[in-house]
Design a protein that fits this description.
66% helix, Tetracycline Repressor, domain 2, mainly alpha, 2 domains
């Protein structure tokens, strides 16, 4: 069993926070290692111990968030063999809890001030999650093209997240869960 060094965890957390702080002001390509290190209060040598470039830091943080998103997305599927959206229990939905947890990240990628690249990375991840479950875990219409259904559903989920962002995340995640279930029951 490997034990994680708390110093490494805290350093990486500080670097992630520094990256988020800078992403609020400028695109990833314009962020320097020096700026990240200054905000994180670590030296460049420490940065290079973990990453070769700023993009590696972003990639690691994005992967961490996407891993959590995948776990959150899978939660309702853990309780059923086939998911029927009309029978979905709002309490099993965890995707909006994930967004709430990483709210500051979502504030950045959904902002009109950042390139759409970040949004499209997220959209592709959500579509990938949906595509992986369509054939084996969700009841689908015969003859339905899974890629179109995944694209539709991913944009619908992200549409709810964008509206929540536009409302400055005023509602709690449970409210969004209930809204999603009500919408699914309409179709």
């Amino acid at each position: 069993m490997t034990q994680t060094d708390l110093r490494v965890v805290k350093t990486k957390e500080a670097l992630h926070i520094a990256l988020l702080t800078l992403l609020k002001k400028k695109p990833l390509e314009a962020i320097s290692i020096s700026e990240i290190c200054r905000i994180a209060k670590v030296n460049r040598g420490t940065f290079y111990l973990h990453y070769a470039q700023v993009g590696d830091l972003f990639e690691e943080y994005f992967k961490e968030i996407m891993d959590d998103l995948a776990n959150s997305y899978q939660e309702p599927y853990r309780h059923v063999v086939k998911l029927n959206p009309r029978e979905l229990n709002p309490k099993t939905i965890r995707i909006f809890h994930h967004v709430e947890k990483y709210k500051e990240y979502y504030r950045i990628i959904l902002s009109k001030n950042v390139p759409l690249t970040y949004y499209y990375l997220l959209l592709e991840e959500v579509k990938s999650l949906l595509t992986g479950n369509l054939e084996k875990k969700i009841q689908v219409e015969e003859g339905m093209d899974a890629s179109f259904q995944a694209s539709y559903a991913a944009n619908a989920i992200l549409g709810l997240v964008i509206q929540w962002y536009n409302d400055d995340f005023r509602q709690n995640a449970s409210y969004l869960n209930e809204q999603l279930v009500k919408i699914l029951r309409l179709t």
